Model the fold of this input.
Amino acid sequence: MNDYFISANDFDAFVSKMASERNVIGPVAKKTKFVYGKIQTNKDLRLDFDVTILPPKKVFTPTCQTLVTFDGSKFEGAVDKQPVVLFGVHFYDIKGLDMTDLLFSENNRDENYMAKRKAATVIGSSVQNVSKRAFWGSVGANVAPKGHDGFITKIGAGYHYQSLTQKGEALVGYGNFKPATEGQAEEARTVNVSMMSKCPEALKHSSEAIAKKVRDSFKNQELWANLSEDCFSCGSCNTTCPTCYCFDVQDKWNLNQVSGMRNRYWDSCLTEDFAKVSLGAGAEENFRETRGERFRHRFMRKAAYLNEKLGGPACVGCGRCSAACTADIADPVNVIKKIMEV
Amino acid sequence: MALTIDYSKVAPEGNIFLPRECKITHVKQVTKTERHFTLRHADNSKVKFNPGQILEVSLFGFGEIPLGYASSPTRENTFDIVIRTVGRVSTALNKLSEGDSLYVRGPLGSGFPLNELQNQNILVVAGGIGLCPTRSMIQYITDRRNEFKNFTLFYGARDPSQQMFHEDIAKWKAAKDVDYHEIVDKTDGKWTGNVGVITELFKKTTITPDTRVIICGPPIMFRFVIAECDKIGISRNNVYVDLERRMKCGVGKCGHCQINDNYVCVDGPVFRYSDIQNLEEAL
Amino acid sequence: MSKPKVAFFDFTCCEGCQIELTNYGDSAFLELLNHIEIVEFREAMTEKADHIDIAFVEGSFSREEDRARLEKIRQRASIVIAYGSCATSGGINAMKNDTNDYKQNVYGKDANMPHLDSQIALPVSAAIKVDYNVHGCPMDKYELLDIVSHLLHGKTPVIPNYPVCVECKRRETICRYDVGDHCMGQVARSGCGAPCPADGIPCEACRGFVDSPNEVALKKVLKEKGKLPERWAERKSKMFTANHRSDAKKLGV
Done:
């Protein structure tokens, strides 16, 4: 909609004012890393973050989310519609949100995610620092981020802000924004374009070529067994992934043993019991029993299964899985390289 | 890939995780571990679903389990489910009595494609507890018998004590327009009927190559039954399999029931065999 | 329903789990008391009862003469729950299982006193049937509350079979390996909420291994990424999981 400029000093005042009037979540420091957390003043907001430990989807579907509360025979839904400003999302994570938006809204619309999502204002941010395992410059290049309401880019003298929706435009009222000059808008474009080549890792093939090869390798059991030899089935790659959205559901009673809740928890298809079915009389069937089968399922989902629906791979190149895997076998760049070489 | 179904017509409206209360109007212990419940909506509204569709049945504090409807939507005031005591939720559900409430979400998923089955010869092959979800189709056929041509039903149980729906069986045996055959894996001494694997029943009657086949049973059973269908020359396009997975949400989100690209809970649980025959994780 | 009768027993252990139980110090424990009746609890009372609905057993089975006492508990109790690592896996006591000189090292000249006689340390389940395990050193009192809550409703408790990494990630703890440390969270059974790594301490797998731990990869990662020397990497998982390792000693071996 509109291009604005705000000076560095005015930006601090803007963030504090916005944080005092709205519920703002943004990247904050956690020791040596970053997480999405509550912004109280401008000092909390760390737009110089490289990547957050968990992706921003946790704002819309927390790691433990109550779906239904009950009290005896009475029960009600627990849909959270509280508005939130999610300020400072890198473009790759906006792409991740676009994907979970689609997956939670298609077919059976999931209000527990969508209500909060619809009530949110999402503001993208330029990447100021690149994380060590990022490869977003080379993945799903034809998939553009689209679910955000505005985008802020750090440029020489301050910040360029582009509002994209009414919700994004509304934030302008909290600060001393001025219309951006063509030069400032151009500088912002240059900053964002030049970042695209700064990732330390890169995929060497097109999404289509990768999807085909990964699918064609489905029955190559030796390949998957080798790739997953050191896998702990710990689920770290899934749990940190911005496009993973599987969950488990468990009921819990409160201490009074009468009321309680039905919660969903982020789950992971890499863990051993994910596809296990009880058949009765102690018998079980595990439809993905081996590490190799589970490892394969993850790559099928990231590189092939959802591509048609999403318009590209279910991977945004954030590198969180690569960094989270202690055995260092989860990095899609390395794994796909090996698959392509077979 | 999924069988044609209009999700907008079957999806629960609003909060997909909010169940509806149902009252138990009748409950019967059918085997040592299985109980047969007849339920009505607590608000007495009509029951609408497709044969073969599923529902999530729950008790608060215990959780939810996916089950198939075990009765036909032609009986619109009540519906049936059969619960086998397997885990936390089913154990708690099987302690309920007449008049108690339980909570359901559904109908979910795709059912049997009625338009492809009507005016055709039908064979239903049900093994063990696989008779429960297929009973929704069997009952539909017997209720609207003139909408279908020859109807053959094969039912296999582990032993005579595992047989369910005795009243139904008596009716099927008596009915001239139901070609019913049954078998048990192991006899108890008193059993005078067929003993062996379910595929033995193919020798007892004639199944024509144009027959539409519905299969539901333990994972091992599918392959053998499909091999028999192949021998007869039945197209795999005309074979429908009703699969079971660990569905946590029933609405295509949680990922637990995924087989390759397919979510059993929304793309299934009924699949055309030709669509999934190459999926290693399916059977 | 009448309140279930609950009793607590201890075997080879530090009784730390019982202490942990009395540490609720908040409304949670009092609320729990509305639903159960404690009939035997050495750390807090002296009375005893004949029938027990739920018996909590702490400590490992490390002396043959304890077998009779355990069997007696099993006879009296409808449900037996092993709680704390010693009871569920043999715990830290099992560190001695592959040594021969521990008595001399610990007791010196008194090493051969008859009351110090013991066999290898094993979980309670090596002597009697155990219905449920509450893992951890010490066990997590809130998990115990949760398990009791399940049992009050006749529901089998949910004990996770995924590793501690899942819980670290959910709470966005910085991985110990990212700060140059080591950790065993990849193979450790979760359910504790991963408090140790959050406090900057490596996970020692006090709750035991998950069902299928990748022991080979663990050793490799401890060495290559955790920078532990070969011998440490090899022995690291003996602290709490000696009885879960593929080279675990069995009774009479």
